[in-house]
Write a structure and sequence with these properties.
2 domains, mainly alpha, about 85% helix, single chain, flat
Length: about 70
């Protein structure tokens, strides 16, 4: 974890100009029609991940409630 923080501290986070360049490169690589499809897929993936983590939390809470006391 410290290694990641050191690398981010050394290189810094991208600023406004860098984000514009990154967006232009992505636009050139994927094209204007493909980007909405990519974002839709990314959004559905995040939605599934959140649902899975929520379901896992509910299951772990149910297991704690139903666990016999010693």
């Amino acid at each position: 974890m410290n290694l990641i923080l050191n690398i981010v501290g050394l290189l810094g986070l991208p600023g406004g100009g860098e984000w514009i360049i990154i967006a232009l490169v992505i636009l050139i690589l994927f094209g204007g029609r493909k980007i909405p499809e990519l974002m839709k897929g990314l959004g559905s993936g995040i939605k599934e991940f959140k649902k899975a983590t929520k379901d896992d939390q509910i299951k772990s809470e149910d297991n704690k409630i139903n666990e016999p006391k010693k």
